[in-house]
Write a structure and sequence with these properties.
This protein is mainly α and 257 residues long. It has eight helices and no strands. Helix 3 packs antiparallel against helix 5, helix 3 packs parallel to helix 7 and helix 7 runs antiparallel to helix 8.
Length: 257
């Protein structure tokens, strides 16, 4: 039984890798489905805008509130802006936005593709000579690679504004000094680290959710299982790759540990 499960795991990883490679290479091959890509960008970007703004705002406010309370005990409350800026730009911003993106866009992708499989729409595409991966997966990869970094930048900005509100109007810190601290952490190393991660996260989320959707079997229960598995696996991979990428970027950018 363990050997069988290991074989299934290796097979799934192989198929996921092939789907990811074909979907990514499809960006450079004709035909180009511009309308599908724009539709997916609208769904992923504009459709996720409000919830990402809302979540990012309260994450920034909560982080600033907690740090202000803890640092004030040690008389270091003025360092709130610097710590908040580094935390949001390098770590919390990209990861929080990616998790929200998974819950909304990733789950929707797995559910939509799973419904198409169960409704034999994917088989119909093949019957008409259309590559399902090129038609269904590639536009979603392009959308994620464009929209998730944009949403991350917006989320970071909103989080910093929420942090500023708490620091100035609740913790009674200097607003000028707060933004001065933020400007000091906007170095190339910090910005590059926070900007690079969304591309990896977006690619991972899209490929995992598309694969789980396209391998859906077993009716409504199978659809529920594949959608749940897509979200859970995406969340796990985001957290794991966040650590891996952080470790690699710290080494590449010359940070000593």
């Amino acid at each position: 039984m363990n050997t069988l499960r290991l074989k299934e795991l290796v097979y799934d990883l192989q198929e996921l890798y092939l789907l990811s490679a074909r979907g990514l290479l499809g960006i450079f091959r004709k035909p180009f489905y511009f309308n599908d890509t724009i539709e997916q960008m609208d769904y992923a970007g504009a459709g996720s805008f409000f919830i990402i703004v809302l979540v990012s705002l309260f994450v920034g406010m909560a982080l600033s509130l907690q740090l202000s309370a803890e640092l004030s005990i040690m008389g270091l409350k003025t360092y709130t802006g610097k710590i908040v800026g580094i935390s949001i730009i390098r770590e919390l911003g990209p990861m929080v936005v990616a998790l929200v993106y998974t819950g909304r866009v990733g789950a929707g992708t797995a559910s939509e593709l799973g419904s198409m499989v169960l409704g034999h729409q994917v088989d119909t595409l093949r019957a008409f000579g259309v590559d399902p991966i090129k038609k269904l997966v590639t536009p979603r990869i392009i959308s994620a690679l464009i929209m998730l970094p944009v949403l991350t930048i917006i989320g970071d900005l909103v989080s910093l504004l929420g942090s500023y509100y708490v620091a100035v109007f609740i913790s009674h810190q200097s607003g000028t000094f707060f933004w001065s601290s933020i400007r000091k952490v906007l170095t190339f190393e910090n910005v590059f680290s926070g900007s690079f991660k969304p591309f990896i996260f977006g690619f991972l989320i899209t490929c995992i959710c598309c694969y789980m959707g396209l391998t859906t079997r077993g009716g409504s229960q199978g659809l529920r299982h594949s959608t749940t598995q897509a979200v859970v696996l995406s969340i796990i991979m985001i957290i794991v790759f966040d650590f891996v990428l952080t470790r690699i970027l710290l080494y590449v950018l010359g940070f000593s540990l």
